[in-house]
Amino acid sequence: MESFDICVVGAGTFGSCTAYHLSQNKNLKVCLLGPGEPTVKDGSRTVFGCHYDEGRITRVISRKKSELTLALKSTLAYEKLERESGIKVFTEVGYAIVGKSNQFYTNSVKASEQFCLQQNIPFRILTKDQMKSEWEGFDPVDAEEGMFLPQKGGHVSIRNLVKASQKVALQNGVDRRTDVVTSIVKNDAGFLITLESGNMMTCEKICITTGSFTNFFGLLRKTPDIKLMGHTVMKFEIDEDTFERCKFLPSMIYCPTIPYVYILPPIRYPNGKVYIKLGHSVSFDDPLTRLLHSHQEVLDWYCLPDYPEARSYFIKWFGEIFPKIEVLSAVLDHCVMGVTATGRQYLGFAEKDCFVGVGGNGVSAKMGLEIGRIIADSVIAGQWKGIDLDEKDFEIIYKD
User: Minimal CA–CA distance to 33: which of 146, 157, 158, 194?
Assistant: First the structure.
């Protein structure tokens, strides 16, 4: 039976970034466990992930101090990862919040302005006419103004973040297994891991980074309090000429009304096509959100063939925001977000030598690289290693 110093269970964003940071210690024998991205979404597998995407908004502003710290440290670390892996992860096209005088927009801009002034991060307040002039194709019906941050914002390829982290980790000697973990048992030597294939292995320490699937396999002795949010996006295909004209469009929260939509600028996907992506509010109050309960409901959501209400909703919004852009095709995609009871990520020891990192809350793509470092350094040291962060903010809340 194989034995490792540390096993990382879950090969999505948190897990892959954890393996990357663990691999910096060449004396450790590390194994990263979990399936890769599927070629098709169907019922043939028991685990999916949120990282099958080319564009997630990244920014260094938030109303939560912990998010600001994690996002900023992650953003500053992309260059090193890109250099080591040769894979592009971060695209700095800037970030904007666009809206009009409602409470959400006003409060968001006020908090963002204060942070930018404190951190010497440049920003501009743009009128509707200025936005139309500077961002080709952007011609919103309702928006009155926007706050634009040209630096340390844009989009991260979450797919490439996983790919780059794993590439460097494997180069540094991490073992990679694409099997699903079905059981973890604590014993005198550490942990006994059973895989879906029936194979087994042991490790002295373990990291659990299994996302929305954490509570379906009984991997932890106690059950973290996580609600599962079914989320939908729509990708609008554009031609090459439009791609060239609209390449200066920033990533954006568009909130003249609530619920809001978020916008990813033109991005080329692995199929060679270029898409502008729209998503709806990351909130259970959003009418498109679905609360999921069972393992089967989560699998069905990932494989959902159509969602007529979402299709109509996004087509309406796209037409109001980009009325002059011709769309070649439009395709829906679905993922599941783990929402914690605290609204912050769960990062902490479930028991001795077992560190848990779960609960992305729909915002963790921009923070994954630093979260991976915290998980890696903490499990090695046996104690919390979050820099400039309070361990209590990330406490794991368990169900009764």
Answer: 194
